[in-house]
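Would you mind writing out a protein's amino acid sequence and the numbers that encode its backbone to help me picture the idea?
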Amino acid sequence: GEVCNMINKKYNEFLPSMQSAEDLVSQVDGLSSNIDLLKAGIENEVQRDLNVAVAEFTELKQQLERDTLVLSILKKLQEFDTAIKEYNTALLEKKYVAAAQQLEKARSSLNMLESRKGFELKILKALSTELTVQTQNMLYHLGEEWQKLAVWKLPPSKESSSLESAMHSELHLRTVPSKEEEIAGPPVASVLQAFAVLGELHTKLKIFGQLLLKYVLKPLISYPSLQPFTEEQSDVFILRFKSGEPNLDHFSPMEVFDKIKLIFEVLHKYLLNVPLEQPAEDKKECRLTLAELLGDMIWEELSDCLIQNCLVNSIPTNSSKLEQYIEVIKSTEEFEKALKNMQFLKGDTTDLLKYARNVNSHFANKKCQDVIVAARNLMTSEIHNTVKITPDSCVTLPKLPDPGAGDHLKMQKTSKLLPNDMVNLENETKLSQYTFSLPTCRISSSVEKLMELAYQTLLEATASTDQCCIQLFYSVRNIFQLFYDVVPTYHKENLQKLPQLAAIHHNNCMYIAHHLLTLGHQFRYRLTNILCDGAATFVDLVPGFRRLGMECFLAQMRVQKGEILERLSSARNFSNMDDEENYCAANKAIRQVLHQLKRLGKVWQDVLPVNIYCKAMGTLLNTALTEVVTRIAALEDISAEDADRLYSLCRTMVEEGPQVFTPLPEDDKNKKYQEEVPVYVQKWMTFKELMIILQANLQEIVDQWADGKGPLAAEFSAAEVKSLIRALFQNTERRAAALAKIK
């Protein structure tokens, strides 16, 4: 027989004596009967003669073991050979599963042979090489088949992931086996099962899964305008994409789920509905399908992508839309159910569904994040775009919610505009008009919007679930804490450099503080039930905001004072005014100070509340006057010409100083404030008295002093007046007499 020829050919180094298969079989039979004889021999001889038996027994036993071993090796070699032959036949007929199973049989025979200790055969190396070659050969064939079954047509790699490249991707799936293969069942099944038998399926599917995610599933999630469309030809099914109208404002999870479902249905129908029959004898375990294997590989990444790029965007931003979100949850459930039916998914409620069901918490998180982002944008926008507010400007308060049923106080049901100076705390108590009055001034329009955002968010909070309500309440508190931290640092340079911005920022802080007094109040019915200790208040933030506004403005005042003193320091101490050059320097210094004050008066006009404006301008003018008085009073010698020139410099200050008070844009309305200058400038009368002294004779000075009861005594000490007299008058008896009266 043929068998032996092969065995002889292949194994002649090992069994040169074998001539034929019958030979082999008869040898096996011979061995078997030998063994039977031996057994009988042992039994008979032992009984006959024990002494002889011991030695003989040992020998026979060893012979038996040797023969048994040789026999089992021959059997395994025979099995290996048969398996390889049957594998070859099956491969030619494209019966891939059968072929793969034969290869696995050959492999297990070889493993048995290799595990025999102390039995090293040169032949094993040859067999092992043969097996490897045949396995690679089979995998190559399977790979070729697989490439025909699922064909990717992909764009050139440079445009990696864009809408463009998605539209150039196609997947072709072969649908009908060609005629001669029909016996092997659907080719897909046999190819994939053969891969499974050879343990290579995982690698193949992983690559397929990655391509599927990159070119099909993720683009469908990321680009709402991308539409899959399918085309069925006689023997191939094609999946392509086209771009619909991009509808940016509309991002519906339902549509995305439908598209993804379509893709999985196609794959399920043409490629993956294949049970992976492991060639195990016990068919008890349930049949694992390909869909399940692929699902395991890609589900996690797919579900992350769906959450991040689809569900996150669909979380509503206001509570009224939360109701409609039920639909999204339903469609998420259906999507999962469909995937389970196709066996892509196993197990219950995945992360995807948990995310959708947890919409309330996401809503609150998203809402809070949106609020903070909006607030931050407002805070980092320009300060100098302002709006004017007056005591009767309204913050549009949204419609306030009803108080709890057990509460006897009923709040107004209608939406009400509350003027700034009249906050209606409870229906029965009307506060005096000015308790919460905000003076007319300018604030940044961004701050007005910020306040509206705070009211809007609190209103939203009162309509939300408890958890959400608490989160929103705290995010409103965060807005204000953020303002406190962000604005002074973000706008630091401008607040130092630009006096107008410092004034606006001051107003902004006062405006916020003003609203924080009552902000929690309008919503307290709803909020106090939830927040422990009725903490629904913002009053604790008020002092901080007032301080923030004051500090910024005072810092600006210090800068301005510094500049005034710096300018006056170039006036050469106001000494020797009869020297032309000295007089020019002093005159220039006075002019510059007035110019600086005039400019400030302009940039703060209509910005600061009038009373603060007058105080600020008064303080600065006072700084200038005080400095001039101090310098002149310290002079040791003032000639008549000096005195005249000093007087004319002072007159400039007194005439032009009040004109820097222009709190209002309408000139005629500013007169009143200019006349009130003595109220705001502490040293005004001192300055006027100094001017009188510069022009007076000794007797007039003594009269102005009037024994320490006159107007002069109200402004200067005796020592200062005496010093001025000594500087202004020659040392005469009359001067001595006058000095004696000043005490």
User: Anything to note?
Assistant: The chain has 29 helices and eight strands. The two ends are 152 Å apart (CA to CA). Confidence is low (pLDDT under 50) at residues 180-184, 278-286, 398-435.
